[in-house]
Amino acid sequence: MKGHIHILGICGTFMGGIALLARELGYRVTGSDANVYPPMSTQLEAAGIELREGYAPEHLQPAPDCVVVGNALSRGNPAVEHLLDAGLPYTSGPQWLAEHVLAGKWVLAVSGTHGKTTTSSLLAWILEYAGMAPGFLIGGVPADFGLSARAGSTDFFVVEADEYDTAFFDKRSKFVHYRPRTLVINNLEYDHADIFPDLAAIQRQFHHLVRTVPGSGLVVHPAAVAAVDETLAMGCWTPCETIALQDGTERDSDAGWRAQLVAPDGSEFDVRDPAGDTQRVSWSHCGAHNVANALAAMAAARHVGVPVAVAAAALERFRGVKRRLELLGTVSGVAVYDDFAHHPTAIATTLEGLRARGANGRLIALIEPRSNTMRMGEHRARLADATAAADGVYWYQPRGLDWSLADVVAQSPVPAQLGDSIDGLVEMVAAQAREGDQVVIMSNGGFGGIHGKLLTALEGRA
Predict the structure, then answer these.
(1) 118 marked among binding-site residues
(2) Which residues form a coiled coil (predicted)?
(3) Looking at residue 446, what is its pLDDT?
């Protein structure tokens, strides 16, 4: 054993990934969290990691060799106060990752407001399919791997590069620790209103990230996106390649990598690389946003030597990511999906992608505004229009939300209903759903177990 590390906040997706990597590398790993429950708890326990509920100081006795502190922990937390008073060695998850896993690796980092998890999963899978056996740490569970992190057996490592802050003692974005050689910037919008006052503050952090990419590296980004271009204009010392969906605008004509939709829903598209060669991709996924994610992953993979044709073949076998438009089941002809969308742009693109599939039934959205930014009401003016591609929407008014969704419902371009009870919403949707309908449940949390409750209600109706 290399030593004993204890992780505070271990059941978060990122910190859980750190735990899996540390265990794989030979550390004894224990951890504490306020919410120890499946699926992360079972995944960690199966890896031989001891979990403890809550943040009691005795969890740090006898003292571990190092405490890795998650960014959900703050001053006043009993475990944090104990480790400071006792003078225990401590670090953040991103810093531990940088020092113990990423050092000496060719890091491929995927950043941006939207699509990080899907693009990271696509990139890791392309490298795996190409025989490059990468390590990875992803904020979700790619179906092709069945776990969110592994060390890998080569020098390539794919990391989902989050702009959220690092820890209570390090307010820089997580991604500044990763030192990528290949960097993807998917997009850039205002988010994380709990820590960033405005878009400019986020752009400054992305500028810090760009500063760490070597001149021999590569930055992949969308063409003609003002927020990204402004960030790169602060200073970029690395070659860039641009991507775009081909739509006849100046944006796509300037892009080095272009995708042309063959099927309206994005299930088939042509990729043109910077050399002018074209490759067709046919896959089981939908939405122009996912085509853009795929294009970014192909460009990043090409930087480490994966031919475009090999990347296209990998995409055709890509099985998706849990909670990214994941089909949970079809009951009495009603398809129920789980999606992580928690920003107006993500809500809109997900619904537009499903709409483009051209299903015969209705498209129904069931949405919980749960993220910190949503709860602060920063995006409420855009929420109603974000659901325009649906045939109907059900909004959940959770306890503790400081503003009412009533105005969103009143301004909705499609029929909308508001509920403050999970069971009440389940009853409404189950009563009105009919054969051929698609129901998309959108939340970045557990949504009170509504997914299973709706499936059960639909089965009871049969």
Answers:
(1) yes
(2) none
(3) 79
